[in-house]
Design a protein that fits this description.
This protein has one domain. It contains four helices and no strands. It has helices at 2-34, 38-74, 78-112, 124-156. The radius of gyration is 18 Å and the shape is elongated. It starts with a helix and ends with a helix.
């Protein structure tokens, strides 16, 4: 069963990290450049991020379980602690971002009551939206880097 789980974890982790990279480097910039309003682009981006978060929750959970099963099956290896902590940290960041930051961003957008481009740049709601958006991007970037690290740690794990 462990070989199947190894393949599954690599597949899901590659999909998750790949989806994060594709979204951040390719998809989101195009959305915000081509669509006529930032509100439309933001709505599509938010929906896409929610789906990437679900993939991340599933993947992070599987990574944690597989790491524990591997330690039971083959003994604890030092690299396993790094893999387990990285997977748990990634899960925590996904939950924090989707439950706290994204919810707060949506609430601020609702409070604005009009397209963000029509809200003055010095409006406290727009300033808070900008701050939350920067924090969201930072967490997303950290998670992408952690995901790449997790792929490397998993590949380096001795059999």
């Amino acid at each position: 069963m462990i070989p199947f789980l190894n393949v599954l974890q690599y597949l899901l982790l590659s999909l998750w990290v790949g989806a994060m990279f594709a979204f951040g480097a390719l998809y989101a910039p195009v959305l915000f450049r081509i669509l006529p309003s930032r509100d439309q682009a933001g709505a599509i981006a938010g929906e896409t991020l929610a789906r990437i978060d679900v993939l991340g929750l599933v993947t992070g959970g599987i990574m944690a379980v597989v790491t524990v099963l591997q330690t039971i099956d083959g003994g604890w290896k030092a690299i396993d602690l790094g893999r387990l902590l990285t997977a748990v940290l990634m899960l925590a960041l996904v939950v924090f971002s989707s439950v706290t930051i994204r919810q707060r961003l949506n609430a601020v957008r609702q409070q604005m009551g009009r397209p963000i481009d029509e809200v003055p740049e010095d409006d406290p709601r727009r300033l808070e939206h900008g701050k939350l958006h920067r924090l969201s991007r930072l967490i997303f970037s950290i998670n992408m880097i952690l995901g790449a690290l997790l792929i490397i740690l998993s590949a380096l794990r001795p059999a």
